[in-house]
């Protein structure tokens, strides 16, 4: 309050933008508590845009979108010029440095360039809690001990995978069933039996396999090669496996490959082009395709809302296409099972 009084004394007018607190808007609660997201101070033709960051449970910082309520003065400032905070965003907690600028003591990120780089790819998608609640009313959650245990193991496997890939600087996102679980029910699908991640092949690093092995996740199989249809699978504890699918970018689509070990048959899964956003899933800040619905519909078809227990990766997906057979003389290289 002192800030606003001082600002008014100096001749500033100000605008406060509030919205629902997503930290309270979980599966159990639609509390509707509102929090300040943005403040805009105006003096003559100058504006100061203050974006409020909040700490979230995945140990990251979040800011909300700049959205005007109906009654607000749309001409208060030229809003189209305010790029920062137009969409919700997620950031790592920066280390701050106290510096003196024009005799003013202010804090800045210790590593400004990495903060600015984050800014360009900070867009954040909230989990669809309302739809997830509706889904669980239609299809009550599996509360069996097996399901609870699997979710716990899947969560710790995902956290370990994130730690490992982050340490290598490899960008990844939730893919396949893990992405569907996030989008449809804000949780791991209990009958899925694995954790699925996507990585663009341009981000592939040879250290991935040794890094996972060092983290206690041995390689279970390696299909394909860097030039074509690469896919890695690591063995987590108690039968939960981690599948990493590598995605190849073409002019008008993106695809990943599949291989049937016993026959050497190849399959191709087509996706419309997508970009990456952040979300929070099982207390982890993690990427998902921003165009999530198109991504999921490509993979699971229009009936993705209906749970399917019997899923065949070779024939069930809507976007699968037979892609020939690996030449037999390459099998030792492109079909490795441990």
From TrEMBL:
Residues 2-155 form the Ribitol-5-phosphate transferase FKTN N-terminal domain. GO terms for cellular component: Golgi membrane. Keywords: Membrane, Transmembrane, Transmembrane helix. It is a single-pass membrane protein. It comes from the Eukaryota. GO terms for biological process: glycoprotein metabolic process. It is found in: Membrane. The keyword Zinc does not apply. Residues 169-206 form the LicD/FKTN/FKRP nucleotidyltransferase domain. Belongs to the LicD transferase family. This is Ribitol-5-phosphate transferase. It comes from Galbula dea.
